Amino acid sequence: MGAKPYESASTMASPVIAPSILAADFSRFGEEARRAEEAGGDWLHVDIMDGHFVPNISFGPGVTASLKKATKLPLDVHLMIERPDQYLDAFVKAGAFRLSVHVEAKHDVRETLKRIRDAGCRAGIAFNPATPCSAVEPYLRDVDLVLCMTVVPGFGGQKFMPEVLEKVRHLATHASRRKHFYHVEVDGGIDMQSAARSATAGADAYVAGTSLFRAKDMKREIAAMRKAVRSNI
Ligand code: DX5
Ligand code: ZN
Questions:
Q1: For residue 58, how far is its CA from the centre of ligand 1 (angstroms)?
Q2: 159-195 as b/e: b if 16+ CB within 10 A
């Protein structure tokens, strides 16, 4: 059975938990990726930072290709880089399942999204806490995911910004989502509490670095997060 016409968008997909490898032990990328898989993660979130778009440098296509070999989890690659158009081919080749690009970066956004899809990947549009929904709305038909930054991007371990929930709510109930489905993903400061609040607002994909990789028992943490999300949809 298809979705009922007025069913809330968040019930249209089961919640996705995406552990973020940025919070892993960088000396053991492969093992850490497998740990996220065995703990029940749905996607592996891969944060790419170039030191220009954000004031931090993480890693690039080489590490991404190694992660691809280490895990069966789809790679949810988040490009926090100034020129995603110049590097997207390298990340496609590295095995990205999805490539999310920032609307604030320096590129022809529509053209970049088209190139991602033409290369056989899913496309996502990401935007910062200070950027209004109107900046991403023109692209909603060109993506299968909208990534709402719930911290200022650049570093893991920051505090969730609840003021972003208004944008999550708006995008999750946007009329076009009923005709053309896209995930609404929250990223930054996600733990059980902020995931539950995001679920109430209509998010269906949850990126979590510190709260999962630094947990004593990642499996238990993911199960608890999933439960908290489900009971708040
Ligand atoms: C922040 C990154 C996030 C980061 C989240 O710039 O985009 O994906 O890994 O980390 P936590 O969950 O620690 O806030
Ligand atoms: Zn991210």
A1: 12
A2: ebbeebbebbbbbbebeebbeeebbbbbbbbbbbebb
Pocket test for ligand 1, best of 20, 48, 81, 99 (most atoms within 8 A of CB): 20
The lowest-confidence range among 5-14, 36-45, 131-140, 175-184 is: 5-14
pLDDT of residue 2: 34
Distance (angstroms) between ligand 2 centre and the Cα of 233 equals: 23
189-212 confidence digits (pLDDT tens) = 999 999 999 999 999 999 999 999
Distance between Cα 230 and ligand 2 center (Å):
22
Per-residue pLDDT band at 179 (split at 50, 70, 90): confident
CB 153 within 8 A of CB 54: yes
Distances (CA, A) of 217 to 82, 102, 165: 36, 32, 28
Q: State if residue 208 touches ligand 1 by the CB under 6 angstroms criterion.
A: yes
DSSP class of 50:
B
Q: Taking the model in full, what pTM does it have?
A: 0.95
Query: Is the CB of 205 within 6 Å of ligand 1?
Result: no
User: Among 3.50.30.10, 3.40.50.300, 3.20.20.70, 3.40.50.720, what is the CATH number of 16-230?
Assistant: 3.20.20.70
Please give the number of the atom of ligand 1 that sits closest to the Cα of 49: 6
